[in-house]
Structure formats: structure tokens, C-alpha cells
Write a structure and sequence with these properties.
globular; four-stranded antiparallel beta sheet; nine-stranded mixed beta sheet; Pseudouridine synthase; Structural Genomics Hypothetical 15.5 Kd Protein In mrcA-pckA Intergenic Region, Chain A; single chain; 7 helices; alpha+beta
């Protein structure tokens, strides 16, 4: 069994007063889906005070609930001949300019066509710290988010980069187009994120979730949308998308969080949102030398931006992000 938020092994839980039925209690406690929790219960992997119970059972206050989550079944990751755009590479580090539509690593429903499959296909040596399905992956981008993604080729590089990521020393800035207009040119959203308790496929602002902070700077205001530079201080799943939706300005084209309508207004293609990891800065994990990389807007986002800007603003012959001041270093 595999489910986000659930690590293999034994989990000891204690029910509080008024606890929900057993399947919901396990699901919310371990951040897994209700279906996954029900499967664990049906397979005898959930015991209440040492005894099996039905999914509908309601634990009493103080009752101990032990959950055994099995290790995922190993599945070999197949090397695939998939072209990649490499923005930087040496013996320790690789930075890929990921296209929209590519999943970063294999998982149920996406066992092929991922970035890891492509990296194996080019016979790239990768750090093994993340396990076979996540070899070398230091951080992730959503499937429909394009741009710069950092990969570790050695275990040493992975450890150093992972620690730098935890200390917020790796700078990741994204170009986002959001519906409507922010109240000010700068906005910080510092709100915790977790799985949406009503829809496990989504993330949401949840008081008991993990801390998440995003700084937004408005670079341009058009008729219906704002062009923003988003600076991640943490790396929660869907963080930028959730934070913008939480303030009423979802990412343009984001079907999951309310920004999917109005695509034709700015010529956005289907199954694509306007979010691009355009700027990445980090210190090399071995030499310590600063590395700064930029990624141009993909053609479909450049077209959408030009459509949003209208005829009074032309990007002909220039990089739109450069033109609009995206790469200035004035974030807090």
C-alpha cells in the first residue's frame, strides 16, 4: 500500500474523546485516504487495544490504536528514452528544465514517462538516498508546473543539498499568473497546509498542517490577472497554488483550486496552469560556488502572457520575465 503521508512501519495512536469512526480516525491521524485506512482495517493491520475492529467502530477516549503499514512492493523503474532539457550538469549535480505534463517520479498511476524514467534512460548516475523510485530527486514540481528542478548525482551532494533546502538556503522563484488583483504589490501568505480532509486528492489550509510560507511580488497588473513572482520559503505539496487560492486569486488554468475557468480569455491550453519555476539559486554542494540559473517562459505561457497584457505591451525580441523585472533581487 502506498499513500501520501503514511510511512511504512508501526504507528501508535491514542483516541481522544469523541473520536470519529475507526477508518476516519486512522485516515486523519496518518494523513492517508479513507479507502487506504479501510483497506488496512480489512487486512487486519489495525488493532484497537490488541483486537481487530470494523471500520465503523468508534474508539473510546484513551484507547490505543496500533496501525501497521506494510512497506511498498518494490517495482523496478524502467529506463526510457525521453528527451530532457538540461540547464546545468557536472559530476555532482544536474538541473533539468522540466516540461509541463511530466510527473517527477513513478507512483501509482504514473509508472512510466516520468523524469526519473528519463534520467535513467540517459544513463545518469543518481543519488540513491530517495530509493529507486525517487533517485536523485532533491525537490519536486507539480505535473503541470514547468521549470528548473534540482537533481543530485551522488549521495554526498544529496545530503548537502537536502540540508541546504531545510535551512532555506536554496532560492526557488516561480512566475505565476493569478486571477484578479492582489490588494498590494507585496503579499506574504504564512498558513499551514495539509491534505484536504474532504478530498484527499487536494491540499488545503489546515490549522494542524505543516508550516508553509510564500512571498508574492506583483510584477505587472493586467485587466483580469496579475503576474506574480512567488518565493518559496517551504516546499509543501501545491503550496503556491493553495496559498493563492486561499486569498481568492487562484493560479490561471488551475482546475484543482478554482482557476481553471476563463482559459479562452488568455488563450491558455487545456490541462495547463500558469506556474513556471523560472529562477533557481544554490551553492554547489561540493565546491560551494554559487550557481544561478534561469528558465525562459515556455511558448504556451509566453502566448498567454501576451494575450493577458494586450496590444499595449509587446514582448517581441525580449524575455518577458526579464522585461518585467522578474530577475531583480529585491525579495525579503
Amino acid at each position: 500500500m502506498s499513500d501520501a503521508g503514511a510511512s511504512p512501519g508501526r504507528h501508535d495512536l491514542v483516541a481522544a474523546a469523541g473520536a470519529a469512526r475507526l477508518d476516519l480516525f486512522v485516515a486523519s491521524s496518518l494523513d492517508i485516504s479513507r479507502t487506504a485506512a479501510a483497506t488496512l482495517i480489512a487486512n487486519g493491520r489495525v488493532l484497537v487495544e490488541g483486537r481487530p475492529e470494523r471500520a465503523s467502530y468508534r474508539p473510546a477516549a484513551g484507547e490505543r490504536v496500533v496501525v501497521e503499514i506494510p512497506a511498498p512492493t518494490a517495482r523496478p523503474v524502467v529506463a526510457e528514452d525521453i528527451p530532457l532539457v538540461v540547464a546545468y550538469e557536472d559530476d555532482d549535480v544536474l538541473v533539468v528544465d522540466k516540461p509541463a505534463g511530466m510527473v517527477v517520479h513513478p507512483a501509482p498511476g504514473n509508472w512510466s514517462g516520468t523524469l526519473v524514467n528519463a534520467l535513467k534512460g540517459r544513463d545518469t548516475t543518481l543519488s540513491g538516498l530517495g530509493g529507486e523510485e525517487r533517485e536523485g530527486i532533491v525537490h519536486r514540481l507539480d505535473k503541470e508546473t514547468s521549470g528548473l528542478l534540482l537533481v543530485a548525482k551522488t549521495d554526498r551532494a544529496h545530503r548537502v543539498l537536502g540540508a541546504a533546502m531545510a535551512r532555506r538556503e536554496i532560492v526557488r522563484r516561480y512566475a505565476a499568473l493569478s486571477w484578479g488583483h492582489l490588494d498590494a504589490d507585496r503579499l506574504t501568505v504564512d498558513r499551514p497546509i495539509a491534505r484536504d480532509p474532504r478530498d484527499r486528492k487536494r491540499m488545503a489550509i489546515v490549522n494542524t498542517g505543516r508550516a508553509a510560507r510564500t512571498d508574492f511580488v506583483r510584477l505587472a497588473r493586467f485587466d483580469a490577472v496579475d503576474l506574480l513572482r512567488a518565493h518559496l520559503h517551504t516546499g509543501r505539496t501545491h503550496q503556491i497554488r493553495v496559498h493563492l487560492a486561499s486569498v481568492g486569486h487562484p493560479v490561471v488554468g488551475d482546475d484543482t483550486y478554482g482557476g481553471g475557468g476563463g482559459r479562452r480569455l488568455i488563450t491558455m491550453p487545456p490541462k495547463r496552469h500558469f506556474l513556471h519555476a523560472a529562477w533557481l539559486r544554490f551553492r554547489h554542494p561540493v565546491t560551494g560556488v554559487p550557481v544561478a540559473l534561469r528558465s525562459l517562459l515556455p511558448p504556451e505561457l509566453r502566448t498567454a502572457l501576451a494575450s493577458a497584457a494586450g496590444p499595449d505591451l509587446s514582448f517581441t525580441g525580449s524575455d518577458p520575465l526579464e522585461h518585467l523585472g522578474f530577475f531583480t533581487d529585491d525579495d525579503p
